[in-house]
Write a sequence for this structure.
């Protein structure tokens, strides 16, 4: 890497190397930072890690999430109605990072949150909080260059999305520009556990290999261990599960202890399905 | 890569999930091809003339203006089939839908005018329409909901967020990201990701072109100013487009000041907003310090939108167009004055443009010709305005 940031560790590369040695894929849960409030959110993230999460994908609440279905919209609404601010989100991540120095942490959020803070400041604050990667749901390749430039400066990895309808040109460009991992969309539509993932054809995985994209993690519509197993068997480096994870939070808001137990055992079950 | 410019200066762009890029590219290509295709143009022009009723009239007001130096004209988009300018570009996009081989149409609507226009075009062309409408708007625009359903469209109330136009757009975009193979997203204003701002402008530019020809015929010269209300910016950009290169013509956009731009309850994105991204475009938007979108407010549902089309942001920055704002009260006043003095009941949206033009007329010291784009008629607003004014004006 020609990375000038001295203290940056490539946590994704390390993770994928270790998983390879153990003959496992990655399981990556997604939750919304600040959902439902600051202290519960920290406990939730810790429970995911205790359950065996290989990496974390964390959302920042946003008022107008056009790529999200009702489950994740509601998570945003819960956090925002508790007046969660971007500063709080970074503080929550700082606490998680302090307790867990090695787990890769990725952000998944919307462009306006980044722009309003200023791209440089946002990425620098993310770096300082211990974030490894940023994926911006509404920044396609065509608008990505200025974000990728700042990512390189700050040592953050810009995660790119490979949708199922991507042209060869798009895949080639992702191959050139992707770092960390590639978010492989399991299907069209918005986030949600209601519509199941379509396991990618081996032809698509072959293409991803051919274009040398960063390791693909399959996401959108993954809610069961069987889907995780299929994803990894099809050649994905791992699986991301968002709405299924957030549903556990939504269903157990009045009983936080039980919520944390359920989250932990959900992750353990999903992780167990990553063994090849 | 895009074939048309996707930006106006820094504004505009395509800030959407990667998944939607192929659909937007397909639309851009279909639009480029259609603009060069004489058959498409003939069909579009034919529909505008024989179905929608173009060209629309240009009316010199008789009693509205006291200042003898001022001539105030109304460009009568209220007379267009459907009751507002919206029908123009909807017919164009419905033809594009067919050209792309798609059979379904998704749309968002605020006042219900875009929904009505979409429903009528889809009825005409045998397309299946589903229209997202904020739950609050479904309530305050009940007659339009009934109109849409009469014409066969499915109206889907959106309860998320503020239950207004912005939430309807979110929901339409979510739908489209799962249905782009069969469905076209028929966006209703000159906002959203490229190529919508350009397509919507080009399919509305006859408003300004007709205005120019009509005023030259009547007055032998160009107007001093054209005035239009600005929600997302479609009727305004349609009026402005043919005058942008005529520096003697002032372009004035009127945003909704709601209860006053010093309050939190307004929708003046250019006047009081800051730069950011909403619904796929970089423009002026209403947001807090973290970039969360703020809810807009206006008495008129069609102007109740916390962003503005990117070309307006650009025209404002370069000083080519001027953007002002008008409060609910001023708009309601203009609504009544036009009804009383000219026998024309305007849409509340258009009443904003008219209110500003009346102020200009009062202040003019030289011979002045002003054209107001009367973007729609007020039928849809009658119940709402009645509930606000009560029976005070009916004696
Ligand atoms: C009559 C009328 N005028 C104006 C508008 C505002 O939209 P735009 O700014 O796109 O012209 C609407 C929107 O519904 C409308 O119904």
């Amino acid at each position: 890497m020609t990375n000038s940031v001295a203290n940056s560790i490539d946590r994704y590369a390390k993770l994928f190397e270790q998983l390879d040695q153990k003959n496992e894929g990655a399981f990556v849960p997604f939750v919304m930072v600040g959902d439902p409030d600051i202290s519960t959110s920290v406990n939730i993230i810790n429970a995911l890690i205790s359950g065996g999460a290989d990496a974390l994908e964390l959302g920042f609440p946003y008022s107008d999430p056009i790529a999200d279905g009702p489950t994740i919209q509601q998570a945003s609404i819960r956090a925002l109605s508790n007046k969660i601010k971007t500063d709080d989100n970074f503080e929550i991540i700082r606490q998680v990072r302090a307790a867990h120095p090695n787990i890769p942490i990725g952000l998944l959020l919307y462009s306006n949150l980044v722009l309003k803070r200023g791209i440089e400041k946002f990425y620098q604050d993310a770096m300082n909080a211990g974030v490894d990667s940023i994926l911006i749901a509404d920044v396609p390749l065509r608008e990505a260059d200025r974000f990728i430039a700042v990512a390189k400066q700050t040592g953050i990895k810009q995660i790119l999305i490979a949708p199922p309808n991507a042209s060869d040109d798009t895949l080639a460009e992702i191959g050139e520009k992707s770092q960390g991992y590639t978010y492989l969309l399991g299907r069209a539509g918005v986030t949600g556990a209601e519509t199941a993932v379509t396991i990618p054809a081996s032809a698509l995985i072959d293409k991803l290999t051919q274009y040398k994209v960063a390791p693909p993690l399959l996401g959108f519509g993954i809610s069961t261990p069987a889907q995780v197993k299929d994803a990894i068997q099809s050649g994905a480096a791992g699986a991301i599960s968002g709405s299924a994870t957030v549903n556990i939070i939504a269903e157990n808001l009045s009983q936080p202890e039980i919520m944390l137990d359920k989250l932990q055992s959900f992750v353990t079950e999903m992780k167990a399905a990553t063994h090849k | 890569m895009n074939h048309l410019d996707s930006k106006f200066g820094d504004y505009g762009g395509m800030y959407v999930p990667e998944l939607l890029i192929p659909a937007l590219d397909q639309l851009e290509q279909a639009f480029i091809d259609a603009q060069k295709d004489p058959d498409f143009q003939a069909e579009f022009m034919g529909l505008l003339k024989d179905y929608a009723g173009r060209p629309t009239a240009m009316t010199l007001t008789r009693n509205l203006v006291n200042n003898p130096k001022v001539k105030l004209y109304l460009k009568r988009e209220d007379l267009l089939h459907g009751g507002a300018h919206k029908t123009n570009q909807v017919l164009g996009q419905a033809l594009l839908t067919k050209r792309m081989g798609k059979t379904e149409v998704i749309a968002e609507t605020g006042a219900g005018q875009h929904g009505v226009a979409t429903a009528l075009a889809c009825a005409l062309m045998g397309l299946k329409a589903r229209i997202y409408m904020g739950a609050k708007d479904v309530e305050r625009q009940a007659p339009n909901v009934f109109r849409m359903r009469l014409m066969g469209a499915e109206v889907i109330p959106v309860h998320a967020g503020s239950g207004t136009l912005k939430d309807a757009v979110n929901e339409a975009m979510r739908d489209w990201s799962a249905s782009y193979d069969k469905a076209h997203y028929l966006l209703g204003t000159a906002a959203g990701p490229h190529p919508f701002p350009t397509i919507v402008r080009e399919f509305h530019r006859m408003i300004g072109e007709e205005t120019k020809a009509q005023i030259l015929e009547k007055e032998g010269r160009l107007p001093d100013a054209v005035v239009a209300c600005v929600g997302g910016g479609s009727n305004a950009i349609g009026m402005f487009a043919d005058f942008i290169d005529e520096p003697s013509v002032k372009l004035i956009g009127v945003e909704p000041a709601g209860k006053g731009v010093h309050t939190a309850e307004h929708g003046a994105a250019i006047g009081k907003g800051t730069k950011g991204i909403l619904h796929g475009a970089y423009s002026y938007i209403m947001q807090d310090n973290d970039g969360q979108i703020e809810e807009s407010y206006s008495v008129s549902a069609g102007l109740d939108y916390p962003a503005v089309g990117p070309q307006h942001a650009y025209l404002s920055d370069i000083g080519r167009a001027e953007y002002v704002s008008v409060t609910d009260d001023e708009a309601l006043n203009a609504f009544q004055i036009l009804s009383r003095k000219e026998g024309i009941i305007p849409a509340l949206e258009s009443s904003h443009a008219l209110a500003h033009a009346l102020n200009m007329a009062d202040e003019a010291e030289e011979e002045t010709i002003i054209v107001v784009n009367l973007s729609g008629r007020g039928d849809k607003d009658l119940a709402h305005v009645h509930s606000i004014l009560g029976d005070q004006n009916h004696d």
